[in-house]
């Protein structure tokens, strides 16, 4: 109780302590974010942005403010919360520290109006830069995970939909597309929402087939569009630059068009005949070889791929595959997922 009964500080000393504490808080949070940009994303531009903001804040952290610090007498140093001692994944860690920086900058902006108006104005501008950084980091994380994903599960209607998808996620799957052509919208929304939460719980990307509105409603990571679906430009306008947009392609012309229009990835196929696309003739291995030599964005061989024909698909040059029945109808989806991933991680055997 002794600390609470101490006489209040003078206004100037209190302001100095507030500025000192929040300069520390903002700089610490930025350093944590900077380390991920540097070592997690290998992104020199974002790393430099964080560093510049840290250095700018450091220039204002004068000896006058530091000397006002009184850590033993600060009643807030002993306050804590259970959520502060755990982080569920990288996204959570980044989100917590981005919020920390934003809150600190808001405090600095207001109290610096009584201390240094230039500092106040710059902290306001910096806060908006951190909001933009937050959006870009989320987009970077999605695209980074897309780049690393070698196996793509496209769902089909199933009485065990959630159990199968979760089993595949437990096997290491990091990319799931929800595909449901016939159910009512209420069913689609409920299923997509639950699948999205499930994927994010396991750190996986969740994509919705065809429906941009549904992708937005459940906060999916992106949308996959067929050749007859909405234009990529419209999807980008609605979803923004951070979300992922994929496009189905069956020949080099469609591939080139999808790339030019800004697709983040494409499907290449169907490699074999498949009941999922009964009206599409197989594109075969020739299109895979063309994509291997000419496609600069991630591409997934798709169409009738299973554990038996996978070696031939890899030998043709595929390094990423999308499957439907091979996992959705597998007796042990976890083991099947692990098998596919193990084969995709060591394609050298098929070169």
From TrEMBL:
Binding site for 4-amino-2-methyl-5-(diphosphooxymethyl)pyrimidine: 177-181, 209, 248, 277
UniProt key word Iron: no
Start and end residues of each stretch annotated as Disordered: 62-81
Residue stretches of biased makeup (Basic and acidic residues): 63-72
InterPro entries, sorted: Aldolase_TIM (IPR013785), ThiamineP_synth_sf (IPR036206), ThiamineP_synth_TenI (IPR022998), ThiD2 (IPR041397), TMP_synthase (IPR034291), TMP_synthase_cyanobac_bac (IPR016229)
KW Magnesium (keyword) present: yes
Binding-site positions, Mg(2+): 210, 229
Annotated region (Thiamine-phosphate synthase), positions in chain: 130-351
Region called Unknown, residue ranges: 1-129
Gene Ontology molecular function terms on file: thiamine-phosphate diphosphorylase activity
Known catalytic reactions: 2-[(2R,5Z)-2-carboxy-4-methylthiazol-5(2H)-ylidene]ethyl phosphate + 4-amino-2-methyl-5-(diphosphooxymethyl)pyrimidine + 2 H(+) = thiamine phosphate + CO2 + diphosphate; 4-methyl-5-(2-phosphooxyethyl)-thiazole + 4-amino-2-methyl-5-(diphosphooxymethyl)pyrimidine + H(+) = thiamine phosphate + diphosphate; 2-(2-carboxy-4-methylthiazol-5-yl)ethyl phosphate + 4-amino-2-methyl-5-(diphosphooxymethyl)pyrimidine + 2 H(+) = thiamine phosphate + CO2 + diphosphate
Keyword entries, A-Z: Magnesium, Metal-binding, Thiamine biosynthesis, Transferase
Pathway: Cofactor biosynthesis; thiamine diphosphate biosynthesis; thiamine phosphate from 4-amino-2-methyl-5-diphosphomethylpyrimidine and 4-methyl-5-(2-phosphoethyl)-thiazole: step 1/1
Similarity-based family: Belongs to the thiamine-phosphate synthase family.
Protein's recorded name: Thiamine-phosphate synthase
Source species of the chain: Spirulina subsalsa FACHB-351
């Amino acid at each position: 109780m002794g600390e609470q009964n101490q006489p209040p500080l003078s206004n100037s000393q209190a302001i100095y302590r507030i500025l000192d504490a929040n300069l520390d808080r903002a700089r610490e949070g930025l350093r944590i974010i900077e380390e991920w940009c540097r070592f997690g994303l290998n992104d020199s531009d974002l790393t430099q942005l964080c560093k510049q903001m840290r250095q700018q804040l450091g220039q204002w952290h004068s000896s006058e403010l530091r000397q006002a610090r009184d850590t033993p007498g600060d009643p807030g140093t002993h306050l804590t919360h259970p959520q502060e001692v755990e982080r569920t994944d990288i996204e959570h860690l980044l989100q917590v520290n981005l919020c920390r920086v934003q809150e600190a900058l808001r405090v600095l902006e207001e109290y610096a109006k009584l201390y240094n108006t230039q500092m106040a104005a710059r902290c306001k501008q910096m806060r908006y830069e951190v909001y933009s950084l937050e959006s870009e980091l989320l987009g970077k994380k999605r695209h980074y995970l897309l780049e690393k994903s070698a196996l793509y599960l496209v769902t089909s209607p199933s009485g065990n939909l959630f159990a199968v998808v979760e089993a595949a996620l437990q096997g290491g799957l990091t990319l799931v597309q929800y595909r449901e052509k016939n159910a009512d919208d209420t069913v689609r929304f409920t299923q997509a929402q639950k699948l999205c939460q499930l994927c994010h719980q396991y750190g996986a990307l969740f994509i919705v087939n065809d429906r941009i509105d549904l992708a937005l409603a459940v906060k999916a990571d992106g949308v996959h569009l067929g050749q007859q679906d909405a234009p990529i430009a419209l999807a980008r306008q609605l979803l923004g630059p951070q979300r992922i947009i994929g496009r189905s392609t069956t020949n080099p012309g469609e591939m080139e068009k999808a790339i030019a229009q800004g697709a983040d990835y494409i499907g290449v196929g169907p490699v074999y005949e498949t009941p999922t696309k009964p009206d599409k003739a197989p594109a075969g291995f020739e299109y895979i070889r063309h994509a291997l030599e000419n496609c600069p964005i991630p591409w997934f061989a798709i169409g009738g791929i299973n554990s038996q024909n996978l070696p031939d698909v890899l030998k043709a040059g595929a390094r990423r595959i999308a499957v439907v029945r091979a996992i959705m109808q597998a007796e042990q989806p976890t083991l099947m997922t692990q098998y596919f991933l193990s084969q995709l991680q060591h394609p050298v055997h098929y070169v």
